[in-house]
Amino acid sequence: MNPTLDLLMNRRTHRSFSDRPIEHIHHELIQQATLRAPTAGNMMFYSVIEVTDKKRLETLAVLCDNQPMIANAPMVWLFLSDVRKWVNFFSESGSVEKGENKNIPWRAPGAGDLLLAMSDALIAAQTAVVAAESLGIGSCYIGDILENHEKITELFNLPKYTAVATLVIFGYPKSTEPLANPAIRCPVNSIFMENSYKEPHLQDLEIAFGAQEQQLKKQGRLPFGNTGTISDFYYFRKHTSDFMKEMDRSSKAIIDTWIASE
Length: 262
Ligand SMILES: Cc1cc2nc3c(=O)[nH]c(=O)nc-3n(C[C@H](O)[C@H](O)[C@H](O)COP(=O)(O)O)c2cc1C
What we know:
The chain has a four-stranded antiparallel beta sheet with strand order 1-2-4-3. The protein is α+β, with helices and mostly antiparallel strands. The protein is built from 13 helices and four strands.
């Protein structure tokens, strides 16, 4: 082991933070480390909005499936896919016009730009998470930021060719005690494949998620009076939930808005 692997192996999601504000030097170091994240073509197709306004944070917490910890977190960063900056740069600097003079027509950003910018934003987010962790600052991703596209767009004045990628909340953990029960992961051989996709079926999946199922059973958290399976647990709690229906609707709106011709 080395300190980097030690950090990665022991990282945990934190949802409960002390009131201690993020130290200025820590804030700066996380920003600087984030900028060193790999980025497609070094074009930095992402932006980060730090949400500090209390009213906005409270609205955000509601829009993200009612998670009050968002409003109370010491630092809240919204990671955006951002191709808008290049759309403006290309047009305002005259590159588009130079292209037209050479018979190279303008190409509006499409699905490829969106996915590339999503990659950039998510890699930047995870870099921030790891940098924060190294400074003793815990974090939690908020996937529910993909919900309520229209209201989130209005709340943050998001123009076309920007899209939410993820939200991360940060803070010094409330308790200095190690958290109990780290979330169990699938074994390496159920995730890593060689050369081509190997479709997993029931037996493989029961093995892959068996340890997680045992953990939930011990905690009495399986459905049907703790007699259900881990498949039942995720099927009813996540897959068929109202929040996933909203996330689906909203994500489609994000994609449709991005690729709609102007
Ligand atoms: C894309 C993504 C979205 C997530 N969304 C939420 C969320 O909305 N609320 C929350 O409390 N945790 C959220 N999490 C944290 C996961 O629940 C957590 O990573 C998982 O349970 C594993 O725990 P660990 O990070 O401590 O290993 C999210 C994590 C990821 C990567």
